[in-house]
Model the fold of this input.
Amino acid sequence: MKSGWVLPVYSMLMIFYLTIPVFLMILYGFNDLPGNTERQTPRFWGFTLHWFLNPFQDPQLTEAFWRSIKIAGGTVVFATPIGALLGLALGRYWFRARGSVNFVIFLAIAVPEIVLGSSLLTLFISWSQSAQLSATSPTLGWQTLLLSHVSFSIPFVAVTVRARVAGMDRSLEEAGQDLFATPVVTFFKVTLPLILPGIFAGALLAFVLSLDDFVISNFVFGSDKTFPIWVYGATKIGLPPTVNVIGTYLFLAGVVLALLTAVLQRRRV
Done:
């Protein structure tokens, strides 16, 4: 009996299973709710573009969404260069603490988020209660959110860049030095362009992880709610259709960035 159809059918079923929540989210962004109803209902009443034309009509939702975007952007700004340099060092050089650093990075990725969130909360509380550091200690809010997101994003950036460095052809750098390029020129003209796709992929991963994070943010957000935390609170009284609209925009942006990352990863220098 021929079984060549089993894998394609199985793959299509899995793709359908994984994407059906996304398609439902997009569909209910067009739900034409009756009357003055502004909360999502299980019934689909009809198509409308009203929610897509006014996605930010809820001020609390808008504030939480843009706060998440700003924190994710700040996470990229700080986590990307630190993680990229760390990944470059781990992938290129040998030093005595290399094994320990690799273990710490693996531990930071593998540890449950609830453990990391509670640990960060304990750190910030201890910091704020310290007599010596009380004048400079951050209060729970956007500062602790940013510090937390940077801390758990750095290992992901480092691992991504390290993988890129491991597959890099060292002979290209040696050729640049044979042509009398200084180490600095070699780095910017040869090394950096080679690892740039990995850096971009790591930055994109850091942005998505920060924007999507709920567990760790729930420990340290204080009064500054992020988009996931606001959505979680809104589920108790019903989600507005604009949440589906914003989710649709984020999904489309993620698809575009993922395609761009794939193009950069395929680039050969």
Q: What stands out?
A: The domain at 57-266 is CATH 1.10.3720.10 (MetI-like fold). The chain is about 70% helix and 0% strand. The chain has a mean pLDDT of 84. The chain has one domain: 57-266.
